[in-house]
Automatic annotation (TrEMBL):
Record keyword Hydrolase present: no
Enoyl reductase (ER) domain sequence ranges: 11-326
Keywords from the named record: NADP, Oxidoreductase
PANTHER family per the UniProt record, alphabetical: QUINONE OXIDOREDUCTASE PIG3-RELATED, ZINC-CONTAINING ALCOHOL DEHYDROGENASE
Any one GO molecular-function label of the UniProt entry: oxidoreductase activity, acting on NAD(P)H
Keyword Chaperone tagged: no
Family annotation (InterPro entries): ADH-like_C, ADH-like_N, ER, GroES-like_sf, NAD(P)-bd_dom_sf
Protein name: NADPH:quinone reductase-like Zn-dependent oxidoreductase
Length: 328
């Protein structure tokens, strides 16, 4: 038997239930993992509430990330054996697989080896955050040493990873937050500058910081009408990359009548995690950063699996800095 978190209807954290179910055997191309830690993501809140890009099929489970050890490899799977320490990267549909449990089955393509020096809690906090930030900040080649980069909602786990990756490639990260209480924590996390959006004029502060040039890249998970404000702080020829939809309102397309020429696009980490070659490069990049100490995942708080409802409430409150991890 396995303990799995499931829900039967859309709603708040209270719809989540920890149940005993048959563990099942991994099929061809799958791996069963004995989970030690689970990384939580805001996408899972949106999925639970019905605001994600796909709707749940009930009973549904959750979870894109986990760390643990291989329990059993399915037919045809090579490179993994029982007892191997591994982590799960987000590369599948939540309607097909999930990681909220103590014994879960996931595609072998979503499993990466976990270095013996990386503990389960740290490993569960890595892949969603660092691969999401890796694409625009490192793989694309848009960001060069000395460039200013705007990282909005920088207290999130992706924001924290983006700060570290920007520093790693020689860029100058400018963080935004709605709360002045998070300013010092963001500076301590590597931000060269912090803009408190509830108190400051964002484009004016960007121009002050950059000497009137603007940022080379704005990396934003919020979307909505606020992208027009961000666009006014982007340098001519720069980029606005939107990787989330925290604001459910319509997102306008900045146009040439109001802004310098800039590139605007959406982005998700699935562009990388579902492409074996791009994923291989991303894993190599992140593992190198972890090994050198350039990348240190920030874990705000841990909860036990039996506290999954409280963990989701804490995540939804958005008072944290970094990752929330559930231990098993």
């Amino acid at each position: 038997m396995a303990r799995i978190v499931q829900f039967d209807r859309l709603g708040g954290p209270e719809v989540l239930t920890l149940r005993d179910v048959e563990a099942g055997a991994p099929r061809a191309g799958e791996v069963r993992i004995r989970v030690q830690a689970i990384g939580l993501n805001r996408a899972e809140i949106m999925f639970r509430e019905g605001g994600y890009f796909l709707q749940p099929r009930f009973p549904s489970t959750l979870g894109y990330e986990a760390a643990g050890v291989v329990d059993e490899a399915g037919p045809g799977v090579t490179g993994f054996a029982p007892g191997d320490p591994v982590a799960v990267v987000p590369s599948f549909s939540l309607n097909d697989y999930g990681t909220y449990g103590d014994l879960v089955i996931v595609p072998a393509s979503a499993v990466v080896p976990r270095p013996s020096t990386v503990d389960p809690v740290t490993a569960a906090a890595v892949w969603m955050a660092y691969i999401t930030a890796y694409g625009p900040l490192a793989e694309s080649g848009e960001v060069r040493p000395g460039d200013h980069v705007l990282i909005t909602a920088a207290a999130s786990s992706v924001g924290q990873a983006a700060l570290q990756i920007a520093r790693h490639v020689g860029a100058i990260p400018i963080a935004t937050t709605r709360s002045a209480a998070k300013r010092q924590r963001l500076l301590d996390a590597g931000a060269a500058h912090v803009i408190v959006t509830d108190q400051e004029d964002v484009p004016a502060r960007i121009m002050e910081i950059t000497g009137g040039e603007g940022v080379r890249l704005a990396f934003d998970p919020v979307a909505g009408p606020g992208v027009e404000t961000l666009a006014r702080g982007i340098a001519p020829g720069g980029s606005l990359v939107v990787y989330g939809a925290l604001d459910p309102r319509t997102t306008p397309l900045p146009n040439a009548r109001s802004y310098p020429a800039l590139s605007t696009r959406t982005y998700t980490l699935h562009e990388i995690t579902t492409d074996p070659e791009r994923l291989r490069r991303a894993v190599a990049f992140v593992n190198a950063g972890l090994a050198s100490g350039s990348f240190t995942p920030v874990v705000d708080r841990t909860f036990d699996l039996t506290e999954i409802v409280e963990a989701h409430r804490y995540l939804a409150a958005a008072d944290h800095v970094g990752k929330i991890v559930v231990t098993v």
